[in-house]
Design a protein that fits this description.
By secondary structure, the chain is α/β, with parallel strands linked by helices. It has two domains: about 220 residues, Aspartate Aminotransferase, domain 2 (3-Layer(aba) Sandwich); about 120 residues, Alpha-Beta Complex (Aspartate Aminotransferase, domain 1), CATH 3.90.1150.10. Helices cover about 40% and strands about 15% of the residues. It has twelve helices and twelve strands. It has a seven-stranded mixed beta sheet with strand order 1-9-8-5-4-2-3, sandwiched between helices. The chain has a three-stranded antiparallel beta sheet with strand order 10-11-12. A two-stranded antiparallel sheet has the order 6-7. The model has no long low-confidence stretch (mean pLDDT about 95). Bound molecules: pyridoxal-5'-phosphate. Pyridoxal-5'-phosphate (PLP) binds next to helix 3 and helix 4.
Length: about 350
């Protein structure tokens, strides 16, 4: 048995759509991308959206559109994807890494407040694992512009409001493992027309009257069509994710030494916590059995920079385990994974 950790959900519709775009001869950025942008901004209830080549590039442009530059500081959490660190460095700004809230595994308001300085130019808030940050008003009241990182939270709501609609600007990722996919891809979205205009200008360098450093961060029409088809399937994707997460809840609930994930959001990832130093043994055993479990964050960001004092992140990193979760995962597999998890926990007990 081999069960992948993540998998895109693609069907006949994507194949047909891609063939049509190929036959049209327009394979760079054209009408399909424009339609995808309009559909995304209307889904989010935002004024505009700009399709980008990747989530990282979308994050980079998001920072530039709010004026982040050399010498500025950008606050980011420690327990997230290294793309955040890259986006800040791409702007020649300085990352100020802060510890997380241990329970939600999201950025902590208290540590963010402590990290504010006169040079803070932005706060990036990722809604990790599809679990929305709850106190968005608290972050907004701190002052610096908020960039919402919705790479993992498309369709999730925080206090009844869609993630991506709180901050000055939001970015999304459509990488192959994400909630919807275009292979690689991303989006910048905002209520502010100036931000949208700037992102559109910076995305593409050709035929401009003035010169400034611009990028080639365009999305292709092949990706645009795929994104539109995937967006149409989003409600069913979210439902299937939730059903599988509920099954996991049911099977795992009674197991000793496992804490379930917070039960809100969209279940991009199903992240349990394995206590008493057993994570490594459980992870290895499940992998040996062909179940591709993972640590949900490969390496916390402060470790890359050799920083200390991130206690909540260290504790979470020592316990967090991401189990396979995607719409195509058969419900019977969820039960087999839970069974193997239970066995691995028992074995690690007897090895103590
Ligand atoms: C929270 C977060 N932000 C940003 C990104 C970057 O997106 P991409 O891989 O599309 O560049 C990712 C990707 O995994 C992510 O998980």
């Amino acid at each position: 048995m081999r069960i992948p950790h993540s998998m895109p959900t693609l069907g006949k519709e994507e194949a047909k759509g891609l063939q049509e775009v190929l036959a049209s001869g327009m394979i760079a950025t054209g009408e399909e991308v424009e339609r995808f942008e309009r559909e995304m901004s209307s889904y989010l209830g935002l004024r505009g959206a700009v399709a980008i080549a990747s989530g990282t590039a979308a994050l980079h442009l998001s920072l530039l559109t709010i004026g982040v530059k050399e010498g500025d500081e950008v606050i980011i959490p420690s327990f997230t994807c290294s793309a955040l660190l890259n986006a800040v460095f791409h702007c020649r700004a300085t990352p100020r890494i802060v510890d997380i809230d241990e329970e939600t595994m999201n950025i902590s308001l208290a540590t963010t407040r402590k990290a504010l300085t006169k040079r803070t130019a932005a706060i990036i808030i990722p809604h990790m694992f599809g679990n929305p940050v709850e106190n968005m008003n608290g972050f907004l009241s701190l002052g610096p512009p908020v960039v919402e990182d919705c790479a993992q939270s498309l369709g999730a709501t925080s206090c009844g409001r869609m993630t991506g609609t709180w901050g000055a600007v939001a970015m999304f990722s459509f990488y192959a493992t994400k909630v919807i996919t275009t292979g690689h891809g991303g989006m910048v979205a905002s209520m502010d027309e100036k931000i949208i205009e700037q992102a559109r200008d910076l995305r593409q360098y050709d035929k401009k009257e003035d010169y400034k450093v611009r990028y080639n961060f365009c999305m292709t029409d092949l990706q645009g069509r795929m994104g539109r088809i995937q967006m149409g399937k989003l409600p069913s994707f979210l439902k299937m994710r939730e059903e599988r997460a509920q099954l996991y809840d049911k099977y795992i609930k009674g197991l000793k030494g496992v804490a379930l994930p917070p039960d809100k959001g969209i279940y991009y990832r199903y992240v349990v916590k394995i206590s008493e130093g057993k994570l490594k043994r459980v992870l290895d055993q499940l992998q040996q059995e062909g179940i591709e479990v993972q640590r949900p964050v490969f390496r916390p960001l402060h470790q890359y920079l050799g920083l200390d004092g991130f206690e909540a992140t260290e504790r979470v990193h020592a316990e967090a385990l991401s189990l396979p979760l995607y719409p195509r995962l058969e419900p019977e597999k969820v039960s087999s994974i839970a069974l193997c998890l239970s066995k691995a926990l028992e074995d690690s007990d007897s090895n103590d």
